[in-house]
Amino acid sequence: MKPIVLSGELLKFLEAVEGKTPEGKVITLVQDNISFKLQRCEAEMGRFEAKYGMTFEEFDRTLAKRKVKEKYSYEIETDYVEWEALESERKIWLERIKEIKGERKECLK
């Protein structure tokens, strides 16, 4: 990992952040930001799960089996597209969390 160069002004802001080094503190901030985005994404997914009473995978299977009335309605199609995008986004954020945890371990060595 390349070292991070920060101004004295920015270092003052990092004093309250968990971490032993500036790099560790920045990793903490990035991890916290990713966790926030993951929580927001999961909350949006929860809205669809509550609306339809099932997970996206169940909803997808139900649509494929044509067990949903008005399968091709604007509302169901737009919900499907948005929900599917949230599923993809969630996977990305989970992968980023794994990556950042690896960076954190490297930083502590």
Counting helices, strands and paired strands, the structural category is mainly alpha
The unreliable regions are none
Q: What Rg do the Cα atoms give?
A: 20 Å
Taking the alpha carbons of the first and last residues, their distance comes to 12 Å
Mean pLDDT: 88
3D shape? elongated
Domains, number: 1
User: Element order, helices and strands?
Assistant: HHHH
Q: Beta-strand percentage?
A: under 5%
Major β-sheet profile: none
What is the strand tally? 0
Helicity level: over 70%
Oligomer: single chain
Number of helices: 4
Which keywords apply here?
109 residues; mainly alpha; 0% strand
Question: Would you spell out the secondary-structure blueprint of this structure?
Answer:
Layout: H1 8-14, H2 22-52, H3 56-64, H4 74-108
Helix pairs in contact: 2-4
